Amino acid sequence: MEIIGTGFLAHHLQPLRDAHPGYLVLAAGVPRQQLPDRDHRREAALVDDMIERGLRQRRTLVFFSTASMYGAPGCRGLEDDPIVPSTRYGAHKRDLELRIRESGVDHLILRLSYVLGPNGPDFRLVPALMKQILSGRVRILRGARRDMLHVSDFVAVLDRLFGAGVTNDILNVASGDCAEILHVVEHLERRLGVAPEHQIIEGSHVSHCPSVDKLRTLLPEFGEMGLGPGYHRHALSRYLAETGHLSRTA
């Protein structure tokens, strides 16, 4: 497959670069929320270029969308449900999804949960929480939840999806373990042996919890990959070990 991009996900996908020649993987785009419109326009232009290439080369364009478009009241995190993004970033990704679907290119749109692993950007959730925890005070939005997927398992899931020839579909790629941020913080504290002050922030909770029902159907081996309830603890411990905070995982 051809990998477009040089960032976190593109780096970890390199072991698959000589496999799955029918796929064109777009792993370069807007990496974070709260960016100016010019960055969104840049990503839209890149998507248009990849659509043209996919059509010309008759390959399946793989687009990394986001599970953060889930979170509106009553949202079940299902791929086929009406989407009302709760963030500007989610709305931007939804618009790009529609652009791809209407273009006629063969495509695979993957709505990713929070993918964590070594060499990830410092501004993302877990590094930001780590910085606060180690500073002695951490802010936690009451009721907020996130599904987390270690990047090695993310790559394994994609390898299996591409091997199965999945195309022209929208699919959540997640662990199926949507953990409360409070529990994430508590696990990090236990593994690091620290006890920072908790500042609990009240207000509307933000929960981006994608369903993995469809993924389970497409990948019968999903249940054998160690994913599901409680998985976030394994993913976080592995992350801590890989980033030098622990000598071993737990």
Automatic annotation (TrEMBL):
Coiled coil: none annotated. It comes from the Bacteria. SUPFAM superfamilies: NAD(P)-binding Rossmann-fold domains. InterPro entries: Epimerase_deHydtase (IPR001509), NAD(P)-bd_dom_sf (IPR036291). Residues 24-174 form the NAD-dependent epimerase/dehydratase domain. Pfam families: Epimerase (PF01370). PANTHER family: DTDP-D-GLUCOSE 4,6-DEHYDRATASE-RELATED (PTHR43000). Belongs to the NAD(P)-dependent epimerase/dehydratase family. This is NAD-dependent epimerase/dehydratase domain-containing protein. It comes from Actinomadura fulvescens.
